[in-house]
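Fold tokens
===========
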Amino acid sequence: MERRMILGFLFATLFVGVIIIILVCFTAKNGKRPEPVIDDEPFWKRSVVFQVYPRSLYDGQPDGTGDLIGIRSKAEYLSELGVGAVWLSPIYKSPMKDFGYDISDFTDIDPIFGTMADFNALVNTFHNKGLKVVMDFVPNHSSDQHPWFQKSIKRQDPYTNYYIWAKPKNVLDDGTPVPPNNWLSVFRGSAWTWNKDRGEFYYHQFLAEQPDLNYRDPNVTQEMKKVLTFWLDKGVDGFRVDSLQHLFEVEDLSLDEPVASDSDITDPDEYNYLNHTYTINQPETFTVLREWRHLLDKYPDKVLMAEVYNNNVDTVMQYYGNDTVSLADFPFNFLLIDNLQNRSQLTGHTLRSTIGLWLDSMPEGKWPNWVLGNHDNGRVASRLGTDLVDALNMMTLLLPGTPVTYYGEEIGMENTFVSWEDTQDPQGCRWGPQHYQEHSRDPARTPMQWNNSSLAGFTTANTTWLPVNPNYKTLNVEAQTKAKNSHLKIYKDLTKLRKEEVFKKGHYAFPLVTEDIFSFLRYVEESETYMLVINTSEEDLELNLHHGANIELPHTGQVVLRSITDTSVKTEPGSEVDLSKLPLVRGEGLLLLLSL
């Protein structure tokens, strides 16, 4: 009897398996492949990536500067916000000449932020909350205080060639050595600094306190692999690779870079005065990136994001790799930042062309991403207008791909005025009191605004590392949590919507784009269709969406979300609106559910 039961079970299992194979073959034969199961997708495809500037999220120690204890204490907030991955700007041991991007120990935590025990606790807490932890990886350079550099100065092997050293081109009559070429620092002026102890120049694409590592020395490559392995073994979920395009330079250090013929810059000390043919995007960069990719692939479900600033989108796309070679999971898409520096640049056509350029340029099978702000650029509300905060969050979170949100953008934080006396950013300091405001990145790095108590609830200390924006008394997390409508509540609604099938794997289309209007659809065939409409103008409008649309739209739609600037009864969420007479206030985003 028992044997018959076993045979019956095996026969039934075999029968079900055969049926499944037949169904799969029939489906494939008819040209329709089964939809991928989204839960099997890597976390970085399912998640919003949330960038935290560690000095500025929350001060848990407290001493006026944000830290790991403070970040960990906000795990509940981040979880409820609906983001899936938290990217931490550098927290490594550092003299802080460039606020953590000058690293003196790649495998230790700077005391400003806490201890390694604090980091381990943060990772455990975040993982328990379902949050991934992504580290900033800064491979191009170290601090000049790093033991490697100090030993390289003294020509102590194996560190002698860990950095890029060069003899002077010549020596002036007064004994001043002349740099080997005309290469410039991103932070202005010559990229070469003389070291009298070694008797040579060393190369630095950023500050003199940030000497470039020499990846032509295989020892350096191995050292940085050890760094990646150290953090992967601690449980981090991936890396954002800083300044990747700067990793290599040509071997011939006698070559001068040409003056940029298409630039209107006349100051020979400005970085963009030259065309950087010899110092960025060298072929060897992709070889090293591929090795890092192979290393991460030994660990399950890790992300590799690349920071690449370049005006040529085809150059940026090379960092994806191709069908046969996988490199970064995605290079950051800075097109929305580059093309939208101020309100006058924001039109329906600009949004359509900017978004389309990335989607159309991606190699086959690669994944898009959308970046509106970060620690190097002004706040969205200040660049483009407070009225557009919700509309642009709707756009980036509902387009296909991975959105990257800079802390504070979920509540519409604005740039903060920082006096010359309070300025911290070396990029601003190098320009002096007359021009620092044009170049300082401090205004977008100020403390997170949690409530209307002293210093925005950021710290219980008596001061903060950068001044708090005076508007914190009304613009803060607590106020927006209590309000009936707020940027924060819309952001949370958007992260919930992203979990619906249509936003996880739906198609997209751009039905109507004009100078004043940008729109796109997300849809699944024979299922729901959503349409986002944005008024990019500075005037209130009444639209006829049927006029000029490239697809047939229904007569009405149901309002799902709207910008908080719209208080009309006609467009309250849940109401039906006439698509031939659709009202939109200036800068508004309106998300509609359509029946097609």
About this structure: The chain has two domains: 43-139+221-247+279-493, 506-594.
